[in-house]
């Protein structure tokens, strides 16, 4: 499962994260909330702030011109990272993160595109950030006398989008579908190619890529998506920056509303450095590593009767041929509450997420513990976690 060449590669990468090197006794398992930052990202930000910090698009001196150029170059860098097939037509817009990006699509684009009697499909078992903006847009239109029907995305037993049932929901009035690339609770790839096939060629699809960008290759051409949004801080950049990519192929061209203020220049600098680092490390290998770690964890958990692993039950074994989780494993103990389990793990040096994970109303009704892994995590850390969990097994 872990070839020697992959282990050596991973060891070299882990050493580039100062926060982990400084405190090896702590095990960080909350990368779905925010990823740790490699030294290259920290150096890029420090270098920018100590050599050419200025406001973009608001000066004629060298530092200001250089910052303006950095922002323009960053847009091109993001397009390349996403495999954008038509960068001259599409648009890259910097936002504060995924939540603002999705709200911007809803506020500045969707409300102007929908007409009375139109329909949209929303995934109400995904993150609330990918459900509330669309409902808010529909409510705003309703106050203006425009009636839009919200249909709930169907899910199958494995918590994937039910692409067999979806065509029955798509009508000639379906204008928009919100979707997620990798699920933030179940860890599965939500099969966007099958979603597009089920939805048909004309429906606008907006993708929340918060849990995939920086964890595995994100190919907007293969997705055939119209909008892709992700957060910088989950892709090893600084907090407070994110990307809204618009294809501008279906519907009206996307243009952000309002006045464009000062961009988060240091955040954008960190994002470019993070994308460079991730591509140099190899996103396909990062995905192989995190999937393997997740499979090692689920394989151990399935042997412990006190635990329930959320999501597809046919993919728990390490040798499962069913699609395995992308580094996100969410679990419950049958007797110990999730918050208590989180405190127990924290006392043992394991940093996990214990709550409802901001899942919308079709999601889990009971809180759980989420373990989210990245390339800097090791097989030894997973084994140590399993030892602690096994000690709590009934």
From TrEMBL:
Keywords: Aminotransferase, Pyridoxal phosphate, Transferase. Its cofactor is pyridoxal 5'-phosphate. Residues 27-385 form the Aminotransferase class V domain. InterPro entries: Aminotrans_V_dom, PyrdxlP-dep_Trfase, PyrdxlP-dep_Trfase_major, PyrdxlP-dep_Trfase_small. Pfam families: Aminotran_5 (PF00266). The keyword Transferase applies. GO terms for molecular function: transaminase activity. The keyword Transferase applies. This is Aminotransferase class V-fold PLP-dependent enzyme. It comes from Actinoplanes hulinensis.
């Amino acid at each position: 499962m872990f070839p020697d060449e992959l282990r050596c590669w991973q060891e070299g990468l882990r050493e580039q994260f100062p926060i982990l090197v400084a405190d090896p006794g702590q095990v960080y398992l909350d990368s779905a909330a925010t990823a740790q930052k490699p030294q290259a990202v920290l150096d890029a930000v420090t270098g920018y702030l100590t050599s050419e910090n200025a406001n973009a698009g608001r000066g004629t001196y060298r530092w200001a011109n250089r910052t303006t150029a950095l922002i323009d170059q960053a847009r091109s860098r993001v397009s390349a990272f996403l495999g954008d097939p038509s960068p001259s037509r599409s648009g890259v817009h910097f936002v504060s993160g995924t939540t603002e990006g999705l709200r911007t699509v809803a506020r500045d684009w969707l409300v102007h595109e929908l007409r009375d009697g139109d329909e949209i499909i929303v995934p109400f078992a995904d993150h609330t950030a990918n459900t509330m903006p669309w409902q808010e847009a529909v409510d705003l239109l309703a106050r203006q006398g425009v009636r839009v029907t919200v249909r709930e995305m169907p899910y199958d037993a494995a918590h994937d989008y039910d692409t067999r049932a979806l065509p029955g929901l798509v009508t000639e009035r379906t204008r928009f579908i919100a979707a997620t690339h990798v699920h933030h609770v179940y860890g599965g790839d939500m099969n966007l190619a099958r979603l597009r096939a089920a939805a048909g060629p004309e429906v606008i699809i907006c993708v929340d890529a918060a849990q995939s960008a920086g964890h595995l290759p994100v190919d907007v051409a293969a997705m055939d998506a119209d909008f892709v949004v992700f957060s910088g801080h989950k892709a090893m950049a600084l907090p407070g920056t994110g990307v809204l990519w618009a294809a501008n192929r279906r519907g009206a061209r996307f243009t952000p509303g309002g006045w464009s203020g000062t961009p988060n220049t240091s955040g954008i600098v960190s994002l470019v450095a993070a994308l460079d680092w991730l591509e140099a490390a190899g996103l396909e290998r990062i995905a192989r590593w995190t999937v393997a770690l997740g499979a090692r964890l689920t394989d151990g958990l399935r042997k412990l009767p006190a635990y329930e692993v959320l999501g597809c039950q046919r993919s728990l074994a390490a040798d499962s041929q069913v699609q395995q989780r992308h580094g996100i494993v969410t679990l419950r103990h049958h007797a110990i509450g999730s918050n208590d389990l989180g405190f127990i793990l924290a006392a043992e040096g394991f940093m996990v997420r214990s709550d409802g994970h901001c899942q919308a109303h079709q999601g889990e009704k009971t809180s759980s513990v989420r373990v989210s892994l990245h390339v800097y995590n090791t097989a030894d850390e997973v084994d140590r976690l399993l030892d602690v969990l096994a000690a709590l097994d009934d």
